[in-house]
Design brief:
Double Stranded RNA Binding Domain; five-stranded mixed beta sheet; about 30% helix; D-Maltodextrin-Binding Protein, domain 2; alpha/beta
């Protein structure tokens, strides 16, 4: 039987959104473990240290590496992440102990006109730091100018209506968690604007041999979310895990079946492929592999080969 845990140190980034996400998880854990004290440990990551640098220039795991270091050196007992920030390959000795119920997985459009993507004026300047969002935006609206934009949710929403931009695309979950959804012009369909793997879900990472912590966090696991994100992350892994090409994957269960939408594009979005597959919800890895095969059948084989050869 796992030992009782009296103090749990919870590692998190220090941004307003990260702290809001951490509190969301802690509310659930406190109900399940009223005798346990949870101490929040804020840790600055590489991505936080360079808030204006292009994300692609910062390498992999830019928002999680220091948190994982805190787990490995004993500074934290559990780390709470946006799942989409976690690479498919975790450091030796660490594992995902639980995935919480997913919030809205969609992307949202905000802009100075309060209009939809289809109604944006030609030449509208839309900001995003995500190659995936940029490629999908270019594939849907060639006449829109896509500009780099970084910063926390508040900052990007302010920039979206400031002098240098006309709008921005962000994750719905972050906007909702910050209570800023009134500024959303459009929630973008997951069919035409495929989310990042794991978008909207929170993951609890722990040391793989810490049985007490694995037991403690297991109660917040949401099985349908876990199956869906397993399929999405399996698809990412099938692309090489660290795929630098614009890509998205979103899976959802419907009874015993799983429906999955995937997207991959060249960096300039001159080539862009989307497809849907169905499979057994009990076998998310199989669904992911079927999605990759379907993309090959649609002509994306060259891009998929490129993703596997990208360092």
């Amino acid at each position: 039987m796992a030992r009782a845990t009296k103090l749990v140190r919870v590692g998190t980034r220090g941004s307003s959104l990260a702290l809001r996400q951490t509190e969301e998880v802690l509310e659930q854990l406190r109900v399940l473990h009223p005798a346990t004290e949870f101490q929040v440990v804020t840790i600055k990551t590489g991505g936080d240290s360079a808030p204006e640098a292009p994300l692609a220039s910062l390498g992999k795991a830019i928002f999680v590496k220091e948190l994982e270091g805190a787990l490995l050196n004993g500074e934290a007992d559990v780390a709470i992440h946006s799942l989409k920030d976690l690479p498919t390959q975790l450091p030796q000795g660490l594992t995902i102990g639980a995935v919480c119920r997913r919030l809205d997985p969609r992307d949202v459009l905000v802009n100075r006109w309060g209009c939809s993507l289809e109604e944006l004026p030609a030449g509208a300047r839309i900001g995003t730091s995500s190659p995936r969002r940029a490629a999908q935006l270019r594939s849907l609206r060639r006449d829109v100018e896509v500009l780099p934009m970084r910063g926390n949710v508040d900052t990007r929403l302010k920039k979206a209506r400031a002098e240098d931009y006309d709008g921005a695309i962000l994750a719905a979950a972050g906007v909702i968690r910050m209570g800023l959804q009134d500024g959303v012009a459009q929630f973008l369909s997951t069919e035409e604007f495929v989310p990042a793997p794991g978008q909207g879900a929170l993951a609890l990472e722990v040391r793989i041999e810490d049985d007490a912590m694995l037991s403690l966090v297991s109660g917040v696991e949401d099985a349908p979310t876990k199956r869906s994100v397993t399929a999405e992350r399996s698809f990412l892994e099938a692309l090489g895990g660290g795929c630098q090409l614009p890509m998205g994957a979103y899976a959802r269960s419907d009874g015993d079946m799983m429906v999955m939408t995937v997207f991959i594009a060249s960096e300039d979005a001159q080539q862009a492929f989307r497809t849907n597959v169905q499979g057994r919800a009990s076998n998310p890895h199989e669904v992911a592999l079927d999605a990759r095969l379907r993309l090959v059948e649609r002509g994306a084989g060259g891009l998929l080969t490129q993703s596997l050869s990208t360092p």
